[in-house]
Structure formats: structure tokens, C-alpha cells
Design brief:
13% strand, binds magnesium ion, binds phosphoenolpyruvate, 23 helices, 8-stranded mixed beta sheet, TIM Barrel, Glucose Oxidase, domain 1, 16 strands, 8-stranded parallel barrel, 48% helix
């Protein structure tokens, strides 16, 4: 048996086998806590100040090497530099050295803990996020003080990075150092670390408990980004198994990527568009590389997070125009802000809602904050003059909401017209179908818009009543629940009856088990994470619609998820024997990380 097997949340697929190399350890556990005599106080103060200065100098140097396409990270590095320059933290630590005679490391740790306690009392998710940044910066200074900082430059050959957390500055270094994969203690699927891993296209896990206690520098590790496991010092047999699995995965990826630019057309000639979901403009390279036929969901809220101010129209327009122009003539669907629930911005603070997922989020939040909404609408309209742009509103619950949102859009258009600013007057406008209410009145909503996009991540959450972030009930989060399938079918049928297109952009679109059923329903396009595009296109190209419709008919007659699962598995074994090994490893992803 291997020394240890740890589990985490897989955020980028693939298998890496190599030596572990630790960066950004959590030094707090082993912090020297000593008091110093009066004559040594000034030494400790200098040690503290030097550490602050040298981390600041290093970050400034890294900042200079940030490639143009990662300019968002430059902003984050700037925030960290500002935190280092802020005299409050260094000043408080210095005071502890002088007044209590604490050594520099202990004094700094105490100053950070004070700030954490003060911020905790405020109970604002944004502030909590800022506090995490202070923590990251302080840990770098601590590492300097105790002389335990790890330099990526010291890495011999390629390695698998293990870290407590990775900062934006590390991101840039990681790009330069060509690492094989990484695992962190902190982070979630949508944290910037996860997004970064996907854009680097290396296997990665986040949220790995006890990583620092169980993996040591130089350990041989298998990082399995398919099943979310880290195998520490595997046995010869385990190693051979993983080598075989890695080779299989590489061969599979190579094979499917060879054909990823071919159209997603079934054997009997039906075309489905396969588009990409992105959070950052920087991801377009990966969209194009993986054969994405456009961007079906640009989650615009990311640009509003991780910052203290709101982006202005110019900043947004520049970003949106870049995206529309690079993707042109392929289409880009901008989703207007989906803030609220778990995504808050500082300027609006905590709303103190008991049930934020059902609170003032997405379109509701925008309609309550029309200035913020209109700034974004104007920026999207300006981008529409530079490419094939569509816009969609999230979390629509009724006809009135659509009309209100469209009224703001009309006002933004009128302003731009008066100002002589160009935009596409025929830019298609759609809505996301994410609420059961929207499903039930889909036939009315269809007359208000040009297209639907089904957001199954939320639709499943609201229709089965299962919080998508709550691991206690994750076993109930079932794309193949008979209710989910019927719900999706109602929406597809309503759209087609009204003569509009319907896309699906939740995680279901990248689920190989669900795709044949969606094809059977006649879905027009699928939008999914870029790395999953080649695999899904391959399935579509090996399918014929006759089989998909037959499968759909059979599953719609089933009363239980279990029976539907069996039918879907049979279908996979029958039609995609080559993919079975790969798919069964995907199935292991369903295990909640321990
Ligand atoms: C969805 O709800 O399915 C969706 C795509 O939106 P998000 O995951 O951003 O809520
Ligand atoms: Mg959603």
C-alpha cells in the first residue's frame, strides 16, 4: 500500500506522477515564539522591516513579468503590494516587538490574528476574502523572517507543486516554471486557483485536507486530477497501474484533440454547436485550442470580485471588446452580472439574507442597482460592434423581469445612439432558465427573447431542493433524476414551439452520460468548460439521432434515477466502448471529498 492516499476537489483533469515540491507552507504551526531582551529589540524590528521590504521587492519584480494576457493578475499583485505598504500591519507588529519584546515572527502573527478577529466580527464575505489576502501576504513575510521561504527557482527539474495556497504572483511563476501539476489546501472549484489550473491545462486538486502533514518534499506522488486523489509514495504495483492510466489518459486526450476542430455533427447529419463556458477573457486561447465554436457563457461577475472598487464602463468595454474581437466571427454570449448568493462585491456589502441563494441575486440585484446594471449593458453593447455578441439575463423568474431588464437595455441603446457610439442594434437577447417558475411559463418567456440557455447547476438546485454547495446533500444532486430530464425537455419543447434556439450551459453539458439524452431532445447547443469540449464533440460525432431519440423515449418512461442510470450505462457500453475506461474514472468524481 502507498504511504497515504489523500482526497481533494479535482479542478483540472489529467494524471501527474513526480516528486513533490512544497511552496507556501503554512509556517504558523512551527512559528518560533520567543521574547527578546531589550538590546535585541532593534534587531527584531529590522528583521521585520527587511522582510516586508524584500517581499514587496519580489512582488514588484514578478509584477513586471506578468504577460499582457494575464493583466487581471497584475491588479491582484498590486493589491498585495498595497497591503505590504499599508503601515497598519507592519506598525502593529513593530509595536508588539517594542512593547512586549516578542520576536519578529510572533509579533507579526499576533498583528495578523488581531486583524482577523476584527474582520471576523464584521461578517462580510468580501471582507473575509480580503482577510485571506492579508494572510497570504503575511505568510510570505513570515517565511522570510524565519528563513523558510521556498523559491520556485530552486526546483530541480519538473515537479508537482504542493502548497497551502497559491497567490496570483505564484501563478505567474508557475507558468514560467512549467510545473507538472499542483495541489493546495485552500480553494474551491471556482476559486481563482481552480480557474488558473484549467487555463494552464495541468492536473490539479484543491481543498486537500492535511496536505502539509502527509506529503514531504521529494516524496513520489501521483496526482490524479480525474478521481481527485493524491497517492503518496505508491507501491510498484500502484505506480505501474497509474502509469498505465496516465498513458491511457494522454493517448485518449491526444486522440480526441486531433479531431476537436471538426464540427459536432452526428453520424446521421444533425449539427449541434459546442461552445465554451469561461470566467476570464484569458481563457479564449483554451476555447480555440479545444475546438470551441464560440463562447456560450461568459460569467462576467469574475471581473467584479477580488477588488475594492467597481470596474467602470471603459475598463469593462476594453475587456469585452477584446473578447468579442478575438472570438469573431464566432459568437460570445455575455451573461449579465450574477452577483449575490455566494458572490458579493464590497461596494454593496453583506445583505444579511437568511437564504441568499433565494435572495437578491443576479437579475434581481441588477434591477435594484440600475446604475451598475446600465454600466455593464453599455459596455456589452459597445463590444457588440466588434464581433458576434449576444447577451443573456440570469435567474429570470417571470415575464415582468425580462421586460424590465430589456427596458434598461433599450435605455442604454438610446444613450449610445445619442452619443454616436456604435453597437449592434440586432444583438440577440436571451435568458437563462434556472428556476422552476421559468420552466412552467417557458412558452410565455419564449415570446420575449431570442434564445434560452438552460442553467442546470441552479435549475437542479431549485427543482430538487438541493443546495449545490452543500456536500451533505450532494448525493441528491442528480442530472439524471426523472424530474430533471422532464424539466429540461419542457424547456426545449417550449423554445422550439416558439421558434427560438435553446442551449444548455450547466455542468450537465459536459457529462458524457447526459449528452445523448440532450441530443435526443433536440438541444441546439451545449456550452461547457473548454477542456471537456473535445470529448463531448467526439461523443456527438459517434452518435446517431435515431439512437438518441430511442434512449430519450426509454428514459422518460423510467420512474427512478437508478433505472435511468442503468439505461444510460448500457448505451455508453454499446456505443462508446473506447471511452468506457475514461468515463468510469469520471464517475469516481461523484465521491464527495473527505
Ligand atoms: C447554471 O446555473 O447552470 C449556470 C451555468 O450558471 P452558474 O453556474 O454560473 O450559476
Ligand atoms: Mg446559475
Amino acid at each position: 500500500m502507498a504511504d497515504k492516499i489523500l482526497t481533494g476537489i479535482p479542478v483540472a483533469t489529467g494524471i501527474a506522477i513526480g516528486k513533490a515540491f512544497f511552496v507556501n507552507r503554512n509556517h504558523r504551526a512551527r512559528l518560533p515564539r520567543q521574547t527578546v531582551t531589550l538590546d535585541l529589540v532593534s534587531n527584531e524590528v529590522h528583521l521585520l522591516q527587511d522582510a516586508f521590504h524584500s517581499v514587496e521587492a519580489e512582488l514588484s519584480a514578478t509584477r513586471e513579468h506578468v504577460p499582457a494576457e494575464l493583466k487581471d493578475y497584475r491588479l491582484l499583485i498590486d493589491t498585495h503590494i498595497l497591503m505590504l505598504k499599508d503601515p497598519k500591519l507592519a506598525g502593529a507588529a513593530e509595536e508588539y516587538i517594542k512593547s512586549l519584546g516578542l520576536n519578529a515572527a510572533w509579533a507579526l502573527e499576533k498583528a495578523v490574528s488581531d486583524q482577523e478577529a476584527a474582520f471576523r466580527a464584521i461578517n462580510d464575505p468580501y471582507i473575509r476574502e480580503r482577510m485571506q489576502d492579508v494572510r497570504v501576504v503575511a505568510d510570505k513575510v513570515l517565511a522570510k523572517i524565519i528563513g523558510e521561504e521556498t523559491d520556485l527557482g530552486a526546483m530541480e527539474g519538473r515537479a508537482i507543486i504542493m502548497a497551502h495556497d497559491l497567490t496570483p504572483a505564484d501563478t505567474v511563476e508557475l507558468q514560467v516554471n512549467k510545473i507538472m501539476g499542483f495541489a493546495t489546501v485552500c480553494g474551491g472549484k471556482t476559486s481563482h486557483t481552480g480557474i488558473m489550473a484549467r487555463s494552464l491545462a495541468i492536473p490539479a486538486l484543491v481543498g486537500v485536507n492535511k496536505l502539509e502533514d502527509n506529503v514531504h518534499d521529494g516524496d513520489l506522488v501521483v496526482l490524479d486530477g480525474l478521481s481527485g486523489k493524491i497517492v503518496v509514495n505508491p507501491t510498484e504495483t500502484e505506480l505501474a497501474e497509474y502509469n498505465e492510466r496516465a498513458a491511457y489518459f494522454e493517448e485518449y486526450t491526444r486522440k480526441i484533440k486531433r479531431h476537436c476542430h471538426l464540427p459536432a455533427e452526428t453520424i446521421d447529419g444533425s449539427r449541434v454547436q459546442v461552445l465554451a463556458n469561461i470566467e476570464l477573457v484569458e481563457e479564449v486561447a483554451s476555447v480555440l485550442d479545444n475546438g470551441g465554436e464560440g463562447v456560450g457563457l461568459y460569467r462576467t461577475e469574475y471581473a467584479y470580485l477580488n477588488r475594492t472598487d467597481l470596474p467602470g464602463e471603459e475598463e469593462l468595454a476594453e475587456k469585452y471588446i477584446d473578447l468579442a474581437s478575438i472570438m469573431s466571427p464566432k459568437k460570445v454570449v455575455f451573461r449579465t452580472l450574477d452577483l449575490g448568493a455566494d458572490k458579493f462585491i464590497s461596494s454593496y456589502g453583506e445583505l444579511g439574507e437568511t437564504n441568499p441563494a433565494m435572495g437578491l441575486r443576479a437579475i434581481r440585484f441588477c434591477l435594484k442597482n440600475p446604475q451598475l446594471f446600465k454600466t455593464q449593458l453599455r459596455a456589452i453593447l459597445r463590444a457588440s460592434a466588434h464581433g458576434k455578441v449576444s447577451l443573456m439575463f440570469p435567474m429570470i423568474s417571470g415575464v415582468k423581469e425580462v421586460r424590465q431588464a430589456k427596458a434598461w437595455l433599450a435605455q442604454a441603446k438610446a444613450e449610445l445612439r445619442r452619443e454616436g457610439v456604435e453597437y449592434d442594434p440586432d444583438m440577440p437577447v436571451g435568458i437563462m432558465i434556472e428556476l422552476p417558475a421559468a420552466v412552467m411559463i417557458a412558452e410565455y418567456l419564449a415570446y420575449e427573447v431570442d434564445f434560452f440557455s438552460i442553467g442546470t447547476n441552479d435549475l437542479i438546485q431549485y427543482s430538487i431542493g438541493v443546495d449545490r454547495t452543500n456536500h451533505h446533500v450532494s448525493y441528491l444532486y442528480q442530472p439524471l433524476h426523472p424530474a430533471t430530464l422532464r424539466t429540461i425537455k419542457l424547456v426545449v419543447d417550449a423554445a422550439h414551439q416558439a421558434g427560438i434556439e435553446v442551449s444548455l450551459c450547466g455542468e450537465v453539458a459536459s457529462d458524457p452520460f447526459c449528452v445523448p439524452i440532450l441530443l435526443g431532445m433536440g438541444i441546439d447547443s451545449l456550452s461547457l468548460t473548454p477542456q471537456a469540449i473535445p470529448g463531448i464533440k467526439r461523443i456527438i460525432r459517434q452518435t446517431n439521432m435515431h439512437d438518441c431519440r430511442k434512449l430519450l423515449k426509454e428514459v422518460l418512461e423510467c420512474r427512478t434515477v437508478g433505472r435511468i442510470n442503468d439505461l444510460v450505462m448500457d448505451n455508453i457500453f454499446k456505443h462508446f466502448p473506447d471511452e468506457v475506461t475514461f468515463f468510469s474514472s469520471l464517475l469516481e468524481n461523484d465521491e464527495a471529498p473527505s
